[in-house]
């Protein structure tokens, strides 16, 4: 049957409803695999054009559902009312479709969700939250351990304070004295201190000397110790040199064989 034409020769524009109570659409939530259930209502009309759309109702419904789908995927199933309000705020005004001579006058979506799916998503969200919280806690502990390691490497006396904070029940005088000695030894023999590097250089230098040269070096160092009011260190130095020469089979005054 031919459609009626107006005085200008154009067919009378068609119009209609989107209501279809028997059709339920699935709209994605922010949890993959878990969807909202949607019912769509609204009104549409044609706009003047030389070539009309074959099925303007379907074109209007498609536009409404695509708008709803883009919004729904931002929300969890537990917030179906908020998602519904957001969608309907988008569909509450008329909109001309870009790719068809059709105007969506208004549309409304009613969202629901299965109770079982909501419970499952709640458990999933709780597990994701707990995992993220545990990961954050582990990162914080790792950063704290790294910071403590750097601090103890540069200031070993922090070990005593850190240990006493976490073990206050063990703070007796013997423990404190033992830890104090330990921190002093760490400080004295820290592998990166300049004096340890000097000691290594002296050791390397002495290894290449013969016995007379070592004896001369010991005497020179002993004189320096005595000059700076450290006669005891000078005596200990001569004693150690004598012991080393005895181990090597040489007396302090005899040349090597």
Rg, nearest Å: 44 Å
What is the 3D shape? Answer: rod-shaped
Give the CA-CA distance, first to last residue.
Answer: 130 Å
Number of alpha- plus pi-helical segments: 8
State which percent range the strand residues make up: 5-15%
How many beta-strand elements? 5
> What is the helix content?
55-70%
Give the biggest sheet. 5 strands, antiparallel
SSE ordering? EEEHHEEHHHHHH
* Helix vs. strand class: alpha+beta
Mean pLDDT: 79
Flag low-confidence runs. Answer: 251-257
Could you explain the architecture of this structure?
It is a single chain. With 257 residues, the chain is an alpha+beta fold. 55% of the residues lie in helices and 12% in strands. The protein has eight helices and five strands. The protein has helices at 56-72, 80-91, 115-154, 158-166, 173-188, 194-207, 211-227, 231-247; strands spanning 15-17, 25-28, 35-46, 95-96, 102-112. Strands 1, 2, 3, 4 and 5 form a five-stranded antiparallel β-sheet that branches. A hairpin with a 6-residue loop joins strand 2 (25-28) and strand 3 (35-46). Helix 7 runs antiparallel to helix 8 (231-247). The chain is rod-shaped, with a radius of gyration of 44 Å. Mean pLDDT is 79; it is low at 251-257.
């Amino acid at each position: 049957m031919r459609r009626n034409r107006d005085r200008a020769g154009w067919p009378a524009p068609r119009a209609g409803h989107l209501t279809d109570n028997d059709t339920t659409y699935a709209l994605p939530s922010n949890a993959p695999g878990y969807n909202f259930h949607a019912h769509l209502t609204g009104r549409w009309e044609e706009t003047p054009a030389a070539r009309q759309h074959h099925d303007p109702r379907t074109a209007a419904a498609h536009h409404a559902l695509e708008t709803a789908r883009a919004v729904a995927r931002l929300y969890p199933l537990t917030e179906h009312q908020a998602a519904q309000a957001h969608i309907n705020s988008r569909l509450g005004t008329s909109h001309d479709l870009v790719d068809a001579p059709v105007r969506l006058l208004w549309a409304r979506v009613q969202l629901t969700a299965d109770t079982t799916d909501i419970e499952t998503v709640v458990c999933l969200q709780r597990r994701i939250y707990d995992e993220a919280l545990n990961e954050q806690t582990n990162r914080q502990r790792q950063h704290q351990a790294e910071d403590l390691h750097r601090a103890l490497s540069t200031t070993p006396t922090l070990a005593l304070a850190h240990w006493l904070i976490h073990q206050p029940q063990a703070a007796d005088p013997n423990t404190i004295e033992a830890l104090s000695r330990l921190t002093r030894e760490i400080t004295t023999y820290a592998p990166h201190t300049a004096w340890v590097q000097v000691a290594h250089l002296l050791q390397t230098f002495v290894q290449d000397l013969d016995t007379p040269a070592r004896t001369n070096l010991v005497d020179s160092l002993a004189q320096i110790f005595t000059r700076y009011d450290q006669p005891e260190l000078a005596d200990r130095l001569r004693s150690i040199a004598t012991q080393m020469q005895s181990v090597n089979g040489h007396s302090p005054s005899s040349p090597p064989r």
